[in-house]
Design goal:
Structural class of chain A: alpha/beta
Number of strands of chain A: 12
CATH superfamily of the largest domain in chain A: Response regulator
Shape of chain A: elongated
Number of domains of chain A: 3
Strand order of the largest sheet of chain A: 2-1-3-4-5-11
Distance between the termini of chain A: 50 Å
Oligomer: homodimer
Radius of gyration of chain A: 26 Å
CATH class of the largest domain in chain A: Alpha Beta
Largest interface: A-B, 42 and 42 residues
Order of helices and strands of chain A: HHHHEHEHEHEEHEHEHEHEEHEE
Chain lengths: 341, 341
DNA sequence: TGACGTTTTTTTATCGCTAAAGATTGAGGG
DNA sequence: CCCTCAATCTTTAGCGATAAAAAAACGTCA
């Protein structure tokens, strides 16, 4: 069923049918009603390819994201889809697995598919590909704190401030030897976390020994890291894990070695999820407003696409604040908050 | 940059450029090389819309899935993307949240976007929409055990057999009062599980009291369900949760009420994930070959699309077997397997 | 009545590509 | 030397929509 057939059946020209779809106000009421009824009767929707070929746009936005396995990313996806869906945009979805080449391939594909805009999460593109995009003037929003082009719009959670507050919390609880686990694959987030930790260390009067170790961001990574620390007899008093999954692994390794949490080791995680509150001890973690992050990014992108940018043409960033959920794993068992909200 | 411009630059006709892309064997070696070099130089890829408009196909497959929040679904997505990517298909992705209307909308959209095939996970469509698709003869594969059309190709994990083995395991450990938590939103899986449980109950010589309760498939759902059981003083000896998330919630509720797992209550989950092995006690769970499921479904779909079906035109199902991972939560602490592989 | 402006509709070029049909080329055979 | 045939290339008609330009319809007023 195509527009031509509908036009015949309705006894009008193709242009009229097209106008019923795209500029209904420029069609006489009577004609419009009639055409609409025929369209409905034959269940007609305009061919999307033909339409996009003409308009050079696809009513689609691309979402390039490292993966879907963490709660943080899932929430972002959910937020983006919610807003995009409401505004009648489809979401084309690319999993980059943190590989710049894969990301670049996706960008090429998205450009070829004439997406109206791109949201990139923790982008790893470097100058060259980015330059390409800059020339295209394709609206885009980055989720993450890495500005690759000066004109980029950024949208991120203030991990630095969160890490600062978490570290201060650990110091307040009396921990003097603190260590952070970081994942090289996500160097950007790590950098922010370090900045925050260092700020907390500087601000305190006490002398704190701080160190860090590389660990894969997964249950297994956390487990192996703590196992290594035990073997090398370099266990800290408090450990900051990069994610709740990593923290869960760390917890298991500690338990296997009869190290009590929080008595012998305080443990905190830079990301939160439903399981954190249910572990024993419940895991103190940073609650990131990840769904709101996705929603905000989508909104900003669509604003750019539709030219309804609230602040004229000046690039602007949006910074959301995380929330420290203090639970049991750092030693503060006095005041434990409700475990689900 | 378009095909016409490339043709000019290479000094050939548009048809030749098109043939270099689509039927390279029908172009003289010399010409082909030359055109390819020009294409490369100007970084040309054929406009996807124009191409698809002609071919009435998009080199895209649709994946309709209830959500992305569980490990099971994530693995399926990963498996589908892996196989599809290798065969140069893009994956268009729709989250149905278990709403039939939303699923039907997606199907409409996918049809309009001329996807070459559809993979539906736990489809909830009923007769009418399905009939529509049947008329279209669009290749499709269902993941899940619900055959909506007689011609459907199915692909699923044998939950029934897994549930049977899990129940037998619980009976062997001496549990006489068994209960299962199920989620109405996923009635199909529940049915299979019940069939398996009943089979195990029938096969045993002992007398077992079995019951079931409705609980949302989430951490919170599991927590609330067990809380309810405690209040109504109807706690069983062994509890089968619909998922690991639900089991985690159940665990928390039990702990809060000073019910010891596994001594006072055996707990097992019908899905496995990385956290299960790391909980304390480690959770006995059914390991579903979910990534392989996704890969198999994608392979079957692409076989259908490309007409390379190994078994001529006879619809056939693929049934994968799950694996019972016996850990600590059911009372068998003698032989605990390695917690990650 | 007819000139004029406004509203509504039709005609037609166009988007970029593919493939069928037609044209060109050169080799081989009578 | 001409004919045939295969290999290779070009011309051109769509694919299904949109929108600009042209045409028709209609009301207003001198």
């Amino acid at each position: 069923m195509n527009i031509k057939r509908i036009a015949e059946l309705a006894g009008v020209s193709v242009a009229t049918v097209s106008r019923v779809v795209n500029h209904p106000e420029r069609v006489r009421d009577e004609t419009r009603e009639h055409v609409l009824s025929v369209m409905q009767q034959y269940n007609f929707t305009p061919n999307w390819f033909a339409r996009s070929l003409n308009l050079e746009s696809s009513n689609t936005i691309a979402l390039l994201i490292p993966g879907i396995e963490t709660d943080f990313f899932q929430q972002i996806i959910s937020g983006v889809e919610t807003v995009a869906g409401n505004k009648e945009y489809a979401v084309l979805f690319g999993q980059t697995n943190n590989y710049p080449t894969r990301e670049a391939e996706f960008v090429d594909m998205m450009i070829n598919r004439k997406v109206d805009g791109i949201i990139q999460v923790n982008s790893r593109l470097n100058g060259e590909e980015t330059l390409l995009m800059q020339n295209l003037e394709l609206p885009r929003v980055h989720i993450g704190k890495n500005r690759v082009c000066t004109s980029d719009t950024l949208c991120y959670v203030d991990i630095e401030e969160g890490a600062r507050r978490m570290t201060r919390h650990l110091i307040e609880l009396g921990h003097k030897i603190i260590m952070a686990l970081f994942d090289e694959a996500n160097s950007n987030t790590s950098e922010q976390a370090f900045a925050g930790i260092n700020r907390a260390l500087r601000d305190t009067g006490h002398t704190i020994i701080f160190s860090s170790a590389q660990a894969e961001n997964s249950v297994r990574g956390g487990y192996l890291a703590v196992q290594r620390l035990i073997q090398s007899k370099s266990m800290p008093e408090a450990l900051i894990a990069a994610s709740d999954l990593q923290a869960i692994g760390a917890m298991k390794a500690a338990r296997d070695a009869h190290i009590n949490i929080p008595d012998d080791l305080a443990l905190a995680s830079l990301t939160d999820s439903a399981v954190c509150s249910v572990l024993s001890p419940a895991l103190t973690a940073l609650e990131l407003p990840s769904k709101r992050l996705g929603m905000a990014a989508a909104r900003m992108l669509i604003d750019q696409i539709e030219g309804t940018l609230p602040y004229v043409d000046m690039p602007h960033d949006l910074i959301l604040q995380p929330k420290l959920k203090i639970r049991e794993s750092c030693g503060n068992t006095q005041d434990i908050y409700e475990w689900f909200d």
